[in-house]
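Format notes (please read before filing issues)

Several people have asked whether sequences and structure tokens are stored in separate files. They are not. Every record keeps both together, in the order shown below: the sequence lines, then the token lines. Line labels are part of the format and must not be stripped during preprocessing.
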Amino acid sequence: MSNFHRTGLAALSALLLRVGSAWAQVPGLSPPMTYSADSAKVAAAIAAGVKLIHWVQTTPGASEHIIYVRNISKQPIQITSYEIYDCINLAGRVCGIHAPGPQLAPGQTKRLVVIKVIPGVGPSSYNYRLQSAPVTPDSTRADTTHH
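Then the structure lines:
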């Protein structure tokens, strides 16, 4: 079992952001905690002028973490890039910079990435950050052929 969720509540409080950029640390967490954007946090974020929120969700007993993003503004937002870095004991090619990310309509929630830990090899951890921009009528969708 990994040490993957220990500081999740502290990390969740760092996950609210304004359109632009953000980062979050997800050090040594350990199940069975699940983190999500609850209605009180969303209301506080809206009151603070936040346009985009993100969080890490886990399933008890599962060796994966899912990073979600939600547009709480009144205009579309493009995740221009996101990075998973400082990776320890993660499966697959999740680490690195990924561009573009999803485009989100107002009120829309999307899964950004699924992060799988390698079970039984010791503690796992990672950090992530993302860049976003409002979508304007003149915006064009970024090239999705290169990752």
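For reference, the curators noted about this record: The first helix runs from residue 8 to 13. The chain is about 10% helix and 40% strand.
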